[in-house]
Specification:
single chain, about 280 residues, alpha/beta, Spore Coat Polysaccharide Biosynthesis Protein SpsA, Chain A, 7-stranded mixed sheet, two-stranded antiparallel sheet, 9 strands, binds 2-acetamido-2-deoxy-beta-D-glucopyranose
Length: about 280
């Protein structure tokens, strides 16, 4: 009899102690969570080819821009070294795949468009994709569905729409396709508003048409096919070979990942990967 009572008392005391410790521990956890926000990390994905003169300037500008905003980031320069026409969408898909384990959001970033106004924030896009290079502030592109230039998107959102369609060889339209991909699953696209700057001084556009001629050519069914969405094609159908992957440093010591990539062309699907004159050589 006496033993049972003692056991019950011990049990009750243990129970109360356990309860108090749990409450204390949980409240501590909650406080910690509030004090330290989740650690987000951004991959700046830059589709790239033969732009060494612009790379140093870009990295130097972006590194200090992002550091000022306390945005934890890595730079991933995706360099197309095959002989096919430039494929911006495929390069972005590849940058996404190769940085996926390191980050939880990406910005697809043209190398020739530099943000100048810190009201443009590169923070985690909690509510949905943010098109920073908004047509309202972009120095040249002013059409409403424009989502090129600079677009920030969570990895999970990019994955949900299977990234970008890799059918676009040559210049243009892949971003219009991406706009439709986001819209068809009901994603809201956010853009900066009410900036203190306008379309002349929000970004610096360093593109020099004389050096980098745009490849506007359209061959065969390219134009017609370019209007289709093909949601089943995307980063999961982008085939490529990594020729080299290196962590490099600029003269100022800014680290970046340089990925030399050969994109595989499926000639059955897109026989416009090359200029006809190239294939004759
Ligand atoms: C541009 O890049 C391609 C592929 O890497 C290379 O074959 C070519 O020599 C480069 N051209 C110039 C002008 O650097
Ligand atoms: C923009 O700024 C004006 C004036 O400060 C304000 O009335 C308006 O609500 C703002 N619009 C947005 C979308 O924030
Ligand atoms: C844009 O802002 C600059 C600097 O404030 C100003 O000089 C210029 O007139 C503005 N341009 C337009 C089109 O509003
Ligand atoms: C790629 O993803 C799309 C959409 O999620 C899916 O329909 C398609 O079957 C996938 N393709 C491959 C080769 O995994
Ligand atoms: C392309 O089509 C040909 C003929 O239909 C076929 O033999 C070949 O395997 C296809 N290639 C690819 C990469 O699908």
């Amino acid at each position: 009899m006496f033993k049972t009572r003692l056991l019950i008392r011990i049990f009750i005391i243990y129970f109360i102690l356990f309860f108090l410790i749990s409450v204390w521990y949980l409240s501590k956890l909650e406080r910690n969570e509030r004090a330290t926000p989740l650690n987000h990390r951004l991959a700046v994905i830059v589709p790239y080819r033969n732009r060494s003169n612009e790379l140093e300037l870009f990295l130097s500008h972006m590194n200090s821009f992002l550091n000022t905003q306390s945005v934890d980031h890595i730079f991933m320069i995706v360099n197309q070294v095959d002989k096919h026409r430039f494929n911006r969408a495929a390069l972005i898909n590849i940058g996404f795949i190769e940085s996926k384990s390191l980050v939880d959001y990406i910005v697809m970033h043209d190398i020739d468009l530099l943000p100048l106004n810190h009201e443009l924030t590169y923070k985690y896009p909690q509510y949905g994709p943010i098109h920073l290079a908004s047509p309202e502030y972009h120095p040249i592109y002013h059409y409403l569905s424009y989502v090129g230039g600079i677009l920030i998107i969570k990895s999970e959102d990019f994955e949900r729409i299977n990234g970008m369609s890799p059918l676009y060889w040559g210049w243009g339209r892949e971003d219009d396709n991406f706009y439709v991909r986001m819209k068809r699953v009901g994603m809201n696209i956010y853009r900066p508003h009410n900036l203190s700057t306008n379309n002349t001084n929000t970004f610096q556009h360093i593109h020099d048409q004389r050096i980098h001629k745009r490849d506007y050519a359209k061959y065969g069914k390219q134009k017609e096919e370019g209007r289709k969405i093909y949601p089943e094609l995307g980063f999961n159908t982008t085939k490529y070979e990594i020729i080299n992957k290196a962590i490099r440093k600029t003269n100022q010591g800014i680290e970046y990942i340089m990925l030399d990539i050969k994109i595989e062309c499926d000639y059955n699907l897109t026989d416009w990967c090359d200029h006809p004159i190239d294939t004759a050589n």
